[in-house]
Amino acid sequence: MTLSEVFLWPGTKACERLGVDPEGDAGLIRWMINTLVYLILSLVVVWAIVV
Fold it and tell me: For this UniProt entry, which segments traverse the membrane (predicted)?
């Protein structure tokens, strides 16, 4: 498993659950899911550091 596959894993698994091909035109759905996942993780880390 390459590093890019590790970073794209949440969106890929979500697309597979939805029955959508993550490599096709629905790659934007994978991008959106990955963005939301990593945004939430980043905000939690920042919150933990600040508080």
Answer: 28-50
Q: What is residue 1's DSSP assignment? A: -
Q: What is the pTM of this model?
A: 0.80
Cβ neighbour number for residue 30 with a 10 Å cutoff: 24
Q: Give backbone dihedrals phi and psi of 44, rounded to 5 degrees, phi first.
A: -65, -45
Q: CB of 33 within 8 A of CB of 22?
A: no
Contacts of 30 (CB under 8 A, 6+ apart): 8, 11, 12, 14, 15, 22
> pLDDT tens-digit profile of 11-30?
999 999 999 888 887 788 89
d(CA 50, CA 34): 24
